[in-house]
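Worked Example 4.2. Read the sequence first, then its structure tokens.
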Amino acid sequence: MQIDPIERSVQLNVGELASFRNKLVTDRSSSGHWRASIGRDWHQTMEQQTRNAHPDARFEIPLSAQWRHSEWLFKIKGRMDQLIPTANGYLIREIKTIRHTLPSTEEDLVKFYPDYFAQIAIYLRLASIQNEYTKSILSASLILIDIDTGTVQTVEIDTPKADMFERQLNAMIPFLQDRRNSLNALKECSIKPAYKKLRGGQAQLQTTLNKSALQAKTVLLEAPTGFGKTGIVLEHALRHLQLGVYNRCIYLSSKSTGQLETIKQLRAMSADAIRYLQMRNRKEHSIDTPTHTCSTDKQCEHTSAQLWRDADIHPGKLFKRGTFELENAKDIGAKNGLCPYALTKSCLPYADIWIGDTNYVFSPQSRGVFIDTIGFDPSQTLLIVDEAHNLPQRAAEALGIELSATELLFAYEELRVSGAPRRFLRPLEELSTRINTLRADQTLSSNTHYTLLDLCEDIEQQIAQIHIHWNSVPPFVTELVWRVPPLAKCLAASPQKWLHWSPSNGVLRATCLDARKWISDCITPFGGSILMSATLSPIEHFREDCGISNANSIMAPGYASWREGAYDVAIDTRIDTRLKNREDSYLTTAQTVAAMINESTDEPIAVFFSSYHYAQNIEAYLSKLHPEYKLSIQPRRVDLEEQKLFMEHGLKTADALFLILGSSYSEGVDQLGGRISKAMVVGPALPEVNCVQEARLDALSHYHREMRFQRVFIEPAMRRIHQALGRLVRAPEHKAKILLHGRRYAENAYYDQLADEYKTDQRITNQIDLINWLRRKTIS
């Protein structure tokens, strides 16, 4: 859909007009594509039947028309399924596959599938103004096919149903007018600068960003933590929205802290003048009330459309102070029996800025929430991805597929009880049996690989051919079975792209090794994109991992001169932190932590470890050496509020905070800046050597051995260190002493990957060196 608020015109297809306020659920799960495949098969079957009965019939007839309604010009395009000559004119037929017991009353069918009836009504009305049909008598019918049983029911479109065309136009007018008013208000609103007084480097980055956006569709913005990237990029986005370069902005961050900081910055710049919506996940929206209980899947959304209309809820009116809060969605959901998640999704078309997780664009299962939103046009949208250094990994994880033998067995039993045919159950049972033989951390043998591929392809064919009463089985069964067809494609793909292995006994996982094309395909449709992070470097490797070419992208670096000299770094070469040798130096590490605590009397120190196990071992040693020290090791599996409480309590009461590299504490919590002036990083946290990492090494066979090791192991480890250390110096007045504890930091392969501010000639070879360095004042 493309809306021109100035001309008061809208270009859209028949499906978009028909589904407006009729269809609240987007099914972008793996089953969505296969439901479409089944739909195509039934269309072909019905087409052949019609050809046999009506040789003069026409199929897939394009239709376009302009229709003016309430001062708006609708430019509508569509494609009619069937057009059959009659004695006095033509019969228009629309074919739809559903999962609903047929035959059913017309009243129920209209209630459950209003968008299908609206669609055929739109075709009937638009055809009536085409020159080809003006002298003909037109009629229409909707053919519904239950894919579970193959039952067919035909519903004739009478005058009340035909009037659904006007109803849809009337329903859309308030939305179009709202978008027009919103865009006009955006152009006229006063946007405050991101910062009252610019710090060193910020003005230059603003200029660079504006120039870069004119030169390439994708801007790669790299600037240190604490530089002010969020504010600068948001100001850039808001100015371009005002100018009409874009009509919407999507801001993605994989960390909740990043999303909340973005909202805080946005409100400071625009107050309530600009509508924004933070799309939280399904679990956070969940309610359990007498009127509605949310399920763990999409099922609870399917009953919302009629309740939405009954409650006469208008999304544009739900926004308060520029947004629609999560708690408001829950309250309205509980009051009206609505799914809060569906309610929030339905407010997306009315917001100028969408804020959410990277999955909403880069996950096949979740991206439909944003991409299929009514009125969304990627070519008129600016995409901003924060913490973009995580994008290749997050996208690859989102593409992965996993099947458990136990879950498959449960699904098999449910399908057997529901009466699924034996020819479908047989390969499903064998697939479960085969997966059950898989052992943990093992890749598939060639024989097992091809056996599983044959079984998955067999199940895929059966899904398209048989009729199953999907409504009679639990939703998890449907979701599980529909994972099999995409898994078949993964098993058939190049081994350079996918690894097929078992992460635990009786589990099969397809892990994506190369998400470049997927990431590129997701980014390309957008009118502009900004991928930003403090740690994109090495830039060429990041470009390659994201499938971004030099021709379509440009760098926009932010340089903070105040970071020069902010870090006093030393490399401790006394110990070897590799897994096989680190136990020999636990005592030295504990003594080093103690020395840093002794030299830091006014505030705690931060110690970063590669794993919980490593941190716990040093905690045990240190507790024996100095039981008087208060040590705080980050807790596992806590929410954002609990993280903040831990950090605040630790900063006030602890002698040392033990944090894990790569965790939300080291990468997503910004409370350390200016409050920690001494930190220690215990060895680079290299990824675990396992079959996945070995497969990634093999996938980079075009590189020499040292470069492959650097790409797969060293670069991710050093990036985690940069993310952690960057949060210690977030302003010109911040200073920090950093001890890189482990001799590998002095090796060229690791030292060369350090950012310039962390490179040093200072080496710690004994305890005296350490004490002297700790007592040396940091140069201001």
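Now turn to a second chain, presented in exactly the same format:
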Amino acid sequence: MKFHSHILYRGFSTSHLLAKHYRPSWGEMKPPGTISVTVLGTGHNRGPKSLLLDTGMTRYLVNCGEGTQRILTEHRSKAARIQHAFFTQMSWDNVSGLLGEGYRGLSDVSGVALTARTAGVKKLTVHGPPKVEELMQLTRHFADCETTDIVCSGILSKPFVDNAFRVRAFPVSLSTADTTNVLEPEHKRVKFDDDASKREVTTYAYYFQTLQPRFKLDKEKCLARGIPRPVLESSAVLSILDGPGLTLENGTFIASDEVTSPAPFTPNFLILDCPSAEFIPLFAQNQELLSAITEQPTEENLHSGLSLLIHLLPEGMFSSAEYQSFIDGFTKLVTDHSPLNQLPQSQLPSPDVLTHMVHHLVVDGSGCIPPVRGIYSQSTILHHFFDAHVYPLLHDVQSANRKKAIIEAAQYRPSPFDLVVYAQPQMQYCLRPWTGFQTPEFETLDETRLLDEAFDPLYVTREEAETQFATMRSTLDEHVPSASGSSSSRPVSDRLQEQHGCTQTDFTQPYPELTFLGTASSSPSKYRNISCILVQISPDDYLMLDCGEGSLNQLYALHGSTVAGDILRRLRLILVTHMHADHHGGIFSVALARARLLQLDNPGESSLLPILAPPAFARWMTSFCDLFSHGSIVSLFILPSVYISPCPTHLRPPLCPLRLDSAYAVEWKSLLDSLQLEVHPIKVPHTGTSWAYMLRGRRYRLLSGDVEEKKSQACWSLVYSGDTPECDDLVEAGRHCDLLIHEATMSDEHKDLADRARHSTLGSAIRTGESMMASFTLLNHFSQRYGRLPMLDTFRPSVATAFDFMKVRFDDLRRLPYYVPYYKYAFGKHWDTQQAKAEAYSWRKYREQHQERPEMAVVPNSDTECKQTKTVCK
């Protein structure tokens, strides 16, 4: 197998670029030619209930829950046209995906708002809850870059109007003491015994009236009248649609009515968010909403009625008798006032197809098809070709029941104008042209197909890869004889045996077990989510190292709802390294899910989730509670209140000691004692308040079967770097640790970018591990440039790279370096593309350097000289 070495070039036409990015002023913009509604997320397994409206020129988000950005990224939905966001509730489930931070100019971003900014959107207009703007203002204190400006539209006082829609918002409020779980079905809802949970819940219904074009240009009539095709493709045709007609170069005058016909009808639609059964009578009796739908507007290009009703509901509510009664009455009212009765048949779909005047799209979380697919491909490849224990299959691939349910759901193909359709990801309803429901071809999660799709003969065939993997296994068996054994029977590393005086016959180490839920930096990609490591330190205790957006989704994807729920119940602590959102943006989703589960188990009792974080997190937590009124769900320990910071200069190693005069420190020490854990923060120079952590815990031995017993005389040690460049204090503090998890955001070719953002490269992270004399170094936190795998293919006996959903114990570590040289054969196309881009970047930097110093502008005359101009991670 031979990898390609090439540089990709693009040729751009100036006129093409001008035409592509030309946007006329609002005064001259006409109704768009296409309008569609796409389901981004259905709400399944705590995922987002989000929609995307697309007019071809502008995109509108409806709700932006956690995970929305990753869905947009995977399906290549460009953020550059997202200019509006409509929110149906001021709830964390609806707005959590809007937040973000990153490094502008480095293509490392997080959150839809900042992704839009990087794509060129300077202003994002939000519609609905006034507090969304306040929420975004609060996030700016932990963002290191400029985010998209968030502007409230004032839709509550007057309709929002652009060239596609006139939109009216109808707030419906209910005073309730049960707001933390108002989105839950009745039988699952739990009550929080907290005065803060007693508040007024407001949900917003949005009535979208489409602006109708007057005429449609008939190309057949145009060609029959002799209008040249170049004229049809130019702006001259506007004089036909907007004026009396068009005069050709030969003097022929063509009147508008000769080459136009009435534009096809485009229906209106309503988005209705009903969080609980208590809201049903409020909607049924809302005369303002009912009047807006039935009254004929005075504007010529608007009409009354609607043909699509989108329901955002808890699972099971749509089929309830009370909701069906409401829908029956509502549908009758809309049908009686429908404009379809007065329109000519030429403007409508065929009556054989259009059998119902109102269609219902139900978004209630019941759809089981996952909204993203890249994670299944990645994990299946690693599981099959490398290590079935370290790289487990995800729940949807592993569970026979889940696979069967997904196959059955994928076979469901609704007709374009079915009366009721339950939403699935990427399902569309096309309004202009009015073709109704369009369901994409869903690919089932079949292991054989996922494996076959991984290989592209242009880069590496499966046969070539299998040969390399056989060599890998042979080498692994030679150096690590027990590699083919079960996870519980593998010996600890030789280094750990020397340090702790234990042998293979003494014990194996079931804990700590580390699960990487996110290994990317700044923003999620198709294959990697942002920072989160789940650490199981005992049979009943888990903690998290950072918790970026989407961590809860990752946990559900790996384990399914039942096992994930058990883990959340046993989650005892989250350690936050710094206040960039890709390291803490998922905390409240995890905390809320945990609180709901514990309340279901023991109604009326509360168990707060302890969090150790920098001081800025206190302001963020207070603001969260004020904006969302969820009551107390976390117990916050602020680093300077618990530890002496900065660390006294005379202390070596530089581990911040506990305060002896703080009540918080006493409570904190009690928590750590209950976990039999030591936590030592280490200051690192990423931001002004960035920390690394050293953890020490008790070892366990596996005596027989599932019986585990503590072995108090031995401890394990783990260092988690968070985000940091090379740091001497970190090296000294972590000396001789068992495991170093170190960020390696950039490859060595991008050292200038890493220095600018105060990150580490692959080379510097490896050097840190060597200087620290760590038993093992796991590289983590990779830039989106390396979505599949980092640019490392050299064997080092104590260095490996992390992947999402990877589960490792200390006994597993010694095998991982043998996989590193072979990842590129599983992901040949991605490896080759990265190599080409790195080569192009090195050449560009080389040219820039020699343009500044012309006397050195000598073209390399050999490959050897060329390679000397680049920094290569050896």
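Notes for the reader: The chain has four domains: 32-213+264-438, 215-262, 459-831, 832-868. The radius of gyration is 30 Å.
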